[in-house]
Amino acid sequence: MARPIRWRSPLRGRWLTSVFGAVLLVGMPVVIVTGLLSYIAYGPQFGQAIPADVGLLRLPTFDWPTDPAWLYRLTQGLHVGLGLVLVPVVLAKLWSVIPRLFVVPPARSIAQLAERVSLLMLVGGVLFEIVTGVLNIQYDYIFGFSFYTAHYFGAWVFIAGFVVHVALKLPRMWAGLRSRSIRAVLRTKLADTVAEPFEPDGLAPADPDPPTLSRRGALAVVGGGAVLVAVLTAGQTLGGWTRRTALLLPRGQTRPGDFPVNRTAAAARITPELTGDRWRLTLIGGPRPVLLDRAALEAMPQHTARLPIACVEGWSTTETWTGVPLRELARLAGVPSPASAFVQSVERYGAFNRATLQHNQVLHPDSLLALRVNGADLSPDHGYPARIIVPALPGVHNTKWVGRIDFRAGD
User: Fold this and answer.
1) Would the pLDDT of 199 be above 90?
2) What is the C-alpha separation between 311 and 150, in angstroms, rounded?
3) CA distances (Å), origin 171, targets 22, 167, 178, 344
4) Helix or strand (DSSP H, E) at 85
5) Where are the beta strands (DSSP E) in 134-260?
6) What gap in Å lies between CA 386 and CA 399, rounded to an integer?
7) pTM, whole model, 2 decimals?
8) Which of 371, 283, 299, 404 is nearest to 335 (CA)?
9) Among positive and negative, which fits the CA dihedral 97, 100, 101, 102?
10) Alpha helices in 341-389 (DSSP H)
11) Among the four 53, 250, 324, 352, which has the fewest Cβ within 10 Å?
């Protein structure tokens, strides 16, 4: 059947599609692996990763490391940041292959049917992950379902399509890359740009229009778009002065001397009655409960550590925290070497008002029940009167407004 007349760009062809494909072949595995690591960092062995029950898609779990302290900042920053940077490349790749999406009949053999199914999973999966991921970063849950559950299962749909598509298309991509010299393309001006030879099952049009952009111009547009996205988003992960450039992200901009928060005290319905003079920290796990007010905690030996805090949405910051080491609280509770610790906030609402910490997270010397940050008492939004801060722990599990810690001697 004749190819629709609307697909007549002279830039379409094996080479340009192969270039975009090669970039995604390098970048997408990084996004995939860091996303799966984020799920593991949430502690699925404690049933606190979402979704908790994933059936056959269960990942091998391990104790998430506490060293280096910036580990989760790196993995999640790469997942979100690189995922956003690759969006212009994904859109360019879809533009380059769009004629193949409308071929009739869609499949003339079993091999072609497998290719079409993998393409549906690949395209549908990546668009779903991009849209839901961007909305999650913006805290805009207009889709009406659990982002974490949908993003996890959607990722596996994309991964399956990606693996099959690479297996089917890798030889053609390699041949496409070798069909033209990148140096020659970068030296070719608009006036000298010609269409690739037409192939019945290829991407090049049979009757191309005159070029309005050279191939090096197309690469510059896509590459420039990726750089622009990086400039407008990377600041929320890198922090410092670069945070002022994070114009597209809700937690990119903060007040001078402050740092971002996902959930404010007002949003969590934290009232002065919950955190005022009547507040007590309860330690359990030993022979009897131990109750401590803030004055008692301040009288204990204090430890100061400069640690990053990073959240699943990609933002992170490094601050100086001061408080009581968790291992000292475990000793005081009568469980000097706990297998885990269950931390409960005084917050009564929300899905993330509790967290279970691993053995290594409780006993790390820089793991704190923080009372102060950057030399000042915690503000209500940052967890006053006390919050957890643990190296390399996902931000949501650095529980704020802590009311109870249950140190557990065994599973």
Assistant:
1) no
2) 18
3) 12, 8, 11, 54
4) helix 71-85
5) none
6) 9
7) 0.91
8) 283
9) positive
10) 359-363
11) 53
pLDDT digit string (tens) for 20-39? 999 999 999 999 999 999 99
Closest Cα to residue 400, out of 301, 385, 152, 411?
A: 385
8 A C-beta contact, residue 347 and residue 269: yes
Tokens of 151: 């993003």
Cα separation, 303 vs 398, whole angstroms: 17
Q: Which of 353, 350, 341 is nearest to 390 (CA)?
A: 341
The sign of the torsion formed by the CA atoms of 144, 148, 151, 154 equals: negative
The span from the CA of 25 to the CA of 93, in Å, is: 12
Q: Which residues are bridge partners to 357 per DSSP?
A: 341
Distance CA 163, CA 125 (A): 12
376-377 and 368-373 strand pairing: antiparallel
| Maximum CA extent, the chain | 84
Residue 247, classed as helix, strand or coil, is coil
Q: Coil, helix or strand for 45? A: helix
pLDDT in tens, 66-98: 999 999 999 999 999 999 999 999 999 999 988
- The C-alpha angle with vertex 391 and arms to 310 and 257, in degrees rounded to 5, equals 50
Residue 180 makes CB contacts below 8 A (sequence gap 6+) with 15
